[in-house]
Design goal:
This protein has 298 residues and is mostly helical. It contains 13 helices and two strands; from the N terminus they run H-E-E-H-H-H-H-H-H-H-H-H-H-H-H. The longest helix is centred in the N-terminal third of the chain and has 44 residues.
């Protein structure tokens, strides 16, 4: 009996060793590419950086400078405005597309691929195409409208322009996620509701929405985090010389300008830590609020 126990213990240790070996690349990558850079960013946020990678600890001086900056608060407002423009409309349109793709229509597989296509296109290519579409002089939209609209250079509408591109880029991915949630809903619920005389609209609000709410919650978290961290789209759509840059500058764009243009990596790191804290706060609020509208019962 003791022999069998020893063999079982040895086998268990061997399995554990192989388990650690298999997850080691992921753990190492996480530590090297995520944990260490984040800890280094926290350190830099309390430091004044100097040339050749040197730094000098300065306490909370960077945070005082950041909170006293009008540009920082404007970037916060721009980021919140971008979230309000993209998240509700984007999720609504994604849900509409998912519901349509979940019905029996001809070429359903083709349309799924078409809607998902923007996710596999390089962001730089997407930005170049949309900059041409929104071009004031020879853009397609102004040509159709027969009216000159400064889509990218007007401070009043530049963020709306960026939001349109962001929604177009993400709608396919979100729709695919929501479609997977819709396909997990049992058809028996709809059959029972039809027998009871429920209309399609009633079925949507009383069956579809409650049943797809867990997936909807995941999409909401992902889209909010993505909108708060927006940088690449604005960077590629708005040039440094653009007069509307102040109205479009997000928190992450401000981090880029402070760290890599102005060379003040300490202040830039403070902006990153603030953004992480903001994302954490929004996520906590979402998890608190999801108890009231997310239905996990089958």
């Amino acid at each position: 009996m003791s022999n069998n126990t020893a063999k079982a213990s040895k086998h268990a240790k061997s399995e554990s060793m192989w388990g650690y070996i298999m997850v080691a690349p992921t753990i190492i990558g996480l530590l090297a590419l995520n944990i260490y850079p984040f800890l280094d960013t926290i350190k830099l946020s309390f430091s004044k950086t100097r040339p050749f990678g040197l730094y000098e600890l300065r306490g909370i001086e960077n945070y005082i400078q950041m909170f006293a900056s009008a540009e920082f608060w404007r970037a916060n407002l721009n980021t919140i405005y971008f979230c309000l423009l993209t998240v509700p409309i984007g999720i609504f349109l994604s849900l509409v597309v998912a519901v349509m793709l979940n019905t029996k229509i001809k070429g359903r597989t083709f349309f799924r691929a078409v809607f998902f296509l923007p996710m596999v296109v390089a962001p730089a290519a997407v930005a170049m195409v949309w900059k041409w579409i929104f071009n004031t002089e020879y853009g397609i939209i102004n040509t159709i409208l027969a009216h000159k609209v400064n889509w990218i250079t007007d401070p009043g509408i530049v963020m709306v322009t960026c939001a349109i591109v962001a929604i177009w880029s993400a709608i396919g991915y979100d729709a695919v996620l929501l479609l997977s949630g819709l396909q997990n809903i049992s058809k028996s619920y709809y059959e029972a509701a039809s027998l009871d005389g429920a209309t399609k609209v009633q079925q949507f609000f009383h069956i579809t929405l409650p049943m797809v709410s867990p997936t909807l919650f995941v999409v909401l978290i992902m889209r909010l985090m993505s909108s708060i961290k927006v940088y690449d789209l604005i960077y590629m759509m708005i040039e440094e010389s653009n007069p509307a840059l102040t109205s479009a500058q997000s928190l992450m764009y401000l981090f880029y300008r402070e760290s890599f243009v102005a060379g003040n990596r300490g202040l830039g790191s403070s902006v990153v830590i603030w953004t992480v804290a903001l994302i954490g706060l929004v996520t906590i609020v979402q998890f608190w609020g999801q108890k009231k509208w997310v239905n996990y019962e089958v």
